[in-house]
Design brief:
Layout lengths: L4 H36 L6 H21 L1 H16 L2 H33 L13 H13 L2 H26 L4 H6 L3 H18 L4 H22 L2 H16 L9 H27 L3 H7 L1 H10 L2 H14 L4 H14 L2 H17 L6 H16 L7 H18 L16 H29 L6
GO molecular function: symporter activity
Subcellular location: Membrane
Membrane topology: Multi-pass membrane protein
Length: 456
């Protein structure tokens, strides 16, 4: 008996439910195994365990996802831009997309600043004395224990300042060698080149149609690969979560940093469960709950992989299955995975204020406004890879330090202060990456509604 559209939709829903269920099982089982290993070996888990989990999670699963990213982004953006066709329509879609990205990131930052100012997790006594010398000393020692390469990258990023970050962003938007950028896994230059090429192919009409057909076939083949790789997601997520928890233990979420952790997670929950659903409903009148249920494979994968870029293939598949137009999602989601970082922006704002509080340094209204602007811009430059927000956070720290240095008798924050939050960054990064992906998906759904003539 031939399948009807409704029966095919039911089969797809059943398949998504099974995948979601198994990914959830992998998340829970990975957390249990990781914590068990951490407790059994008293925080010194043997390298064999960590290497084995890393091979399965990072080398195999993450490697497969990253393997298809460049061809996926190139093909999807070119096909999406070509489908939009008219440059005026493309400009309208792009304008709404960028407006949404900047707007939601700014709201996320403001949410984080309000919460961290009210809760003051870095000053539990409320006397402006911070967390105490012992806690601060342990954080600076943790920073010193990091590899020289990572410390050099953090310090170089801070030294370049916001101007350097913006110049780097502009340089990526005008790639001199898109193939070299793809080889270096720099996705924003790939997207910029693909948009330009897509416009050119659309302008070429029938003469360039064979090239468009090639990219349409490539996209179809890559999405089939996504479907196959997704079957490994439960195992990959299990290994990644177990690897993360085994290295730092769930107990790191408590102790002197418990209030900080609660503030970050609380801010992310407010943005993910209130702000984004409200924006989605206001613009589309579509049920946020129903949409979130459809996006659950992508959200759980984002939590497990800790990378919005690596999650992109799953996000695109789930978004299209949840009602986002192909034309919108193939343009909005790749761009969002690179520059739309709601969770990262909120985290950076909370983390920076927390560190200044921990060192007993008061911040005025000027510094808070500076943090709001700088955290939003710095988050755009944060690559969709694990812990990128921690590196770009030093841009915000240095911007505030420059403002404070102009005030006589005011202390500044040492870069080594970021060591205070290094231990728990991975677990919090998993949470903020999930919010990043949720924000991308909401954007794709809104753009689908705002440009109905582009519905796929």
């Amino acid at each position: 008996m031939p399948y009807t559209a409704d029966s095919l939709l039911q089969l797809r829903s059943m398949k998504d439910f099974k995948i979601t269920l198994w990914i959830l099982v992998g998340l829970v089982a990975g957390g249990i195994l990781g914590e068990a290993l951490y407790q059994i070996y008293d925080g010194q888990v043997p390298g064999g365990w960590l290497s084995g989990l890393s091979v399965v999670g990072n080398t195999v699963f993450m490697g497969l996802l990253k393997m298809i990213l460049v061809p996926l982004i190139t093909a999807s953006v070119i096909v999406g831009v070509n489908a939009i066709g008219d440059p005026n329509k493309l400009g309208r879609v792009g304008g709404w997309t960028v407006t949404y990205y900047f707007g939601t990131m700014l709201v996320a930052v403001i949410t984080g600043l309000i919460l961290v100012s009210l809760i003051a997790p870095g000053d539990p006594s409320g006397q402006g004395t911070g967390l105490g010398l012992d806690v601060l000393s342990s954080g600076e020692q943790a920073y010193a224990a990091e590899s020289g390469e990572k410390r050099a990258r953090v310090e170089a990023t801070g030294a370049s300042g916001l101007g350097g970050a913006l110049m780097n962003l502009i340089g990526q938007l005008i790639p001199s060698n898109p193939l070299g950028a793809a080889a270096d896994f720099k996705l924003l230059p790939v997207i910029a080149f693909s948009i330009i090429l897509g416009i050119s192919l659309a302008a070429g009409g029938e003469k360039t149609r064979p090239v468009v057909v090639f990219f349409e076939a490539l996209l179809d083949a890559v999405m089939r690969l996504v479907d196959w790789i997704l079957r490994l997601a439960p195992i990959g997520v299990f290994a990644l979560v177990a690897w993360s928890v085994a290295r730092i233990g769930l107990g790191s979420l408590f102790g002197p940093l418990a209030a900080y952790v609660a503030t970050v997670i609380g801010g992310l929950l407010v943005h993910a469960l209130i702000t984004l659903p409200l924006v989605l409903w206001l613009f589309t009148r579509y049920s946020p709950w129903r949409f979130a249920v459809g996006m659950r494979p992508a959200l759980l994968t984002a939590f497990g992989t800790d990378s919005s870029s690596a999650t992109l293939p799953v996000t695109m598949e789930a978004a299209e299955a949840s009602g986002c137009s192909r034309r919108a999602s193939r343009f909005v989601l790749p761009l969002g995975a690179t520059i739309n970082m709601d969770g990262t922006a909120l985290y950076e704002a909370v983390a920076v204020v927390f560190l200044f509080q921990a060192y007993g340094i008061d911040l005025g209204t000027t510094e808070l406004i500076l943090i709001a602007v700088t955290a939003t811009l710095a988050a755009i430059g944060a690559a969709g890879i694990p812990s990128a927000g921690l590196v770009t956070m030093v841009i915000v720290v240095e911007a505030v330090n420059s403002s404070l240095a102009a005030l006589p008798g005011t202390s500044t924050l040492p870069i080594a202060a970021v060591g205070l939050i290094l231990g728990i960054d991975r677990l919090l990064d998993m949470c903020r990456t999930t919010v990043n992906v949720w924000g991308d998906a909401v954007g794709a759904r809104i753009i689908t509604r705002l440009t109905p003539d582009q519905a796929g």
